[in-house]
Amino acid sequence: RYPWIMGLIMAATSLPIGTGVAWFLFVDRTTVRGAIRDTEETVEGRWLEKAQSGAFGDLLVVLGLGTFVVALAGWQPSLPLVGAGLLLFAGASVTVRYALQKRRG
Questions:
Q1: Does position 39 have pLDDT exceeding 80, yes or no?
Q2: Distance between CA atoms of 25 and 32, rounded to whole angstroms?
Q3: What torsion, rounded to 10 degrees, do the Cα atoms 49, 50, 55, 56 define?
Q4: Distances from the Cα of 41 to the Cαs of 36, 44, 53, in angstroms?
Q5: From the CB of residue 86, how many other CB atoms can be counted at a distance below 10 Å?
Q6: How far apart are CA 102 and CA 7, in angstroms?
Q7: 49-100 pLDDT, tens per residue?
Q8: What is the pLDDT of residue 61?
Q9: pTM of this structure
């Protein structure tokens, strides 16, 4: 009924995402004062690397066990739903592993 209101709402919700993408694509790290040059060499970078590699192992286990259970039960799950679930699981696994690394470190 009021397309300009919908346009304003879409613009307002897209602005933060668009700003973040533009910053990522167009801002050079060396021009930002106080930015760490090699983020991979920081303690947090190592924590993230360990968390991601551990989450990959978790994902392989879940994929293997999930495939076994689905084949055994004869289910035919929705592939987009399975993909979204696996992505959420991987993200949650990285988050938990990173938090544990941070707590230990």
A1: no
A2: 14
A3: 70
A4: 9, 8, 16
A5: 14
A6: 42
A7: 999 999 999 999 999 999 999 999 999 999 999 999 999 999 999 999 999 9
A8: 97
A9: 0.66
Angle, CA 21 vertex, CA 44 and CA 36 arms, to 5°: 30
CA gap 2, 99 in Å, rounded: 46
- 51-78 in b/e form (b: 16+ CB < 10 A) is beebbeebbeeeeeeeeeeeeeeeeeee
Residue 15, token pair as written in the block: 């602005």
The encoded tokens of residue 97 equal 């592993």
In 3D space, the residue among 101, 84, 97, 103 whose CA is nearest the CA of residue 55 turns out to be 97
CA dist list (Å): 75 to 13, 64, 72: 38, 15, 8
